[in-house]
Input
Amino acid sequence: MLEGKLKIEMSHEAIKKIIEDFLNKLTVDFDEIEIIENEIHPTLHIKTGDSGVLIGNNGENLKALNHIIKKIVEKKLNQENGNVKLQFLLDVNDYYGKKLETLKSQAKILGERARMFKSDVEMNPMNAYERMIIHATFANDNEIKTQSEGEGKTRRVILKYKN
Output
């Protein structure tokens, strides 16, 4: 058991090194990269004064950066260890952290609305990761069930009141 955990921690350090090298090649200054363990997967939090460049408009650059880093990590780790899939999230100056807290707060308010009016409430379209967070937020709720509906960019979560 300990050996498996050690392997994962070493992989997190390897991911951190890959991110550092990537940012250095982009000539983006950063203060540190912190590994934050949470219930879903680790977050590699980049602290930088150049957050605008890395985050971009509505987080588009950060989404692309996450994709690129994950592809690089997959390629490097699979060359070394076979078929390894590590889940992680790259965040810059807690952009995603704040966004997800706002999303959870909105979902809880809409959940209360569903309880009060005893009806279903539809949320705005969101990406797969955000939908997963909403589903997890209501996983142990006895009165609200979540369901994803729609296709592609219009896919959203419906908060369904249980009778």
The radius of gyration is 18 Å. The CA atoms of residues 143 and 155 lie 23 Å apart. The longest strand covers residues 144-149.
